[in-house]
Specification:
The protein is about 30% helix and about 15% strand. The protein is of the alpha/beta class. The chain has a nine-stranded mixed beta sheet, with helices on both faces. Strand 1 and strand 2 form a beta hairpin. Helix 5 runs parallel beside helix 11 and helix 7 crosses helix 8. The longest helix is centred in the C-terminal third of the chain and has 16 residues.
């Protein structure tokens, strides 16, 4: 579906599809326990921890929020994919969230399940990267090796996959400039009388987020004055060497420079020290930031893969939606996930929470 067809979405999306969405499981994902990852493999031998792609068409509405969301593209934004509520009238004014993928993998449908969930809560969500092969839509697949004291050495890298249909997108990388271009485009659409988003976007409610490498892109973008909130998912800026992973003085100085530019409320989520390579970076980022509200949480048993490929993005889809609803829409019910000593994540024993400049 492209932008020119957005305004005619009701005609293009069948009654059967809407009915299927209405009958789908729309209950909030549980915050715990972390998921048990499946051991299945795809046709190329890669793990599919949440099962194979559902092979939904771009116009299939997804998400558990009140506004089912579809995936779309536009010729004026060829290096991106965006997600938006089907019924733009019902959704009202949309906040804007730009996204960077794990691995900086340049395929805008890589995190489709998770990003559709965000969009279904009343956002225009724009991911760096064009639409890639449908096999990519399962989200992150491999959990990176975590070096711990006394641990066995990492396994050898897997052999190259022959005739891999996803290879073209895996070989491309997104940048912070792609995320900046997404903000530029969205703001321009809001004032373009020919756009389906004309007058429908809250250009004062702009957020950014990313997983792993995409979290690094988000930090690189964080100085953009148009941002009102950021989310760093299974990611963080490492400022000191840990467990044999060296951080040079130059790398630490560059990391501090980027973090010094952060000027918005910041969410940091990771898995635990044994399973998530981003654990140390998440802690370093929280420890360093001092002038903005910061909510940092890590979960026991959560891997770097997260829950992005689970139905509706799993617990991370729920937490991310509440973060942006609170920060960009002022939703006080969503704030209960984070605010106060009795916040929902604070009460869950599998999550370990730290805060700064909040409550």
């Amino acid at each position: 579906m492209n932008l020119k067809s957005v305004g005619k979405a009701f005609v293009l999306i069948t009654v059967v599809a809407i009915a299927a969405w209405a009958q789908s499981d729309r209950t909030p994902a549980p915050l715990s326990p972390p998921p048990v990852l499946a051991t299945d493999k795809d046709a190329q031998g890669r793990p599919i921890p949440f099962g194979p792609s559902a092979n939904h068409s771009p116009g299939t509405p997804l998400g558990s929020g009140p506004y089912p969301a579809v995936m779309a593209t536009d010729p004026g934004l060829p290096e991106h994919v965006f997600y938006h509520p089907v019924d733009l009238d019902a959704a009202g004014e949309l906040g804007i969230v730009v996204w960077g993928n794990g691995g900086c993998l340049h395929a805008g449908n890589r995190f489709r399940i998770f990003l559709s969930e965000l969009a279904s809560h009343g956002f225009l969500v724009i991911s760096a990267g064009p639409i890639g092969h449908i096999a990519l839509e399962v989200g992150p697949q491999e959990n990176p090796f975590v070096a711990l004291p006394g641990a066995a050495p990492p396994p050898p890298p897997p052999a190259p996959i022959e005739n891999d249909p996803t290879a073209p997108w895996r070989s491309m990388r997104s940048t912070a400039d792609h995320m900046r271009e997404a903000i530029d485009w969205a703001i321009a659409q809001n004032t373009d009388a020919h756009s389906a988003f004309y007058g429908r976007l809250d250009t004062e409610a702009v957020g950014a987020g990313g997983q792993s490498c995409g979290g690094g892109l988000t930090t690189s973008l964080a100085g953009d004055a148009r941002l009102r909130a950021i989310g760093i998912f299974n990611s963080g800026t490492r400022l000191q060497s840990t467990f044999g992973r060296e951080v040079t003085a130059e790398q630490a100085a560059e990391g501090r420079r980027r973090l010094d530019a952060v000027h918005t409320p910041t969410l940091i989520l990771t898995g635990d020290q044994q399973l998530d390579i981003a654990y140390s970076g998440g802690h370093d980022t929280f420890d360093y930031l001092s002038s903005v509200p910061v909510f940092h949480a890590w979960q026991e048993g959560l891997t770097h893969i997260g829950t992005y490929g689970a139905p509706n993005g799993g617990s991370l889809g729920r937490i991310a939606s509440d973060w942006y609803k609170w920060q960009l829409q002022g939703d006080q019910q969503a704030a209960s996930m984070f605010a106060g000593t009795d916040c929902l994540l604070c009460q869950d024993k599998s999550w370990h929470v730290q805060k700064k400049n909040m409550d």
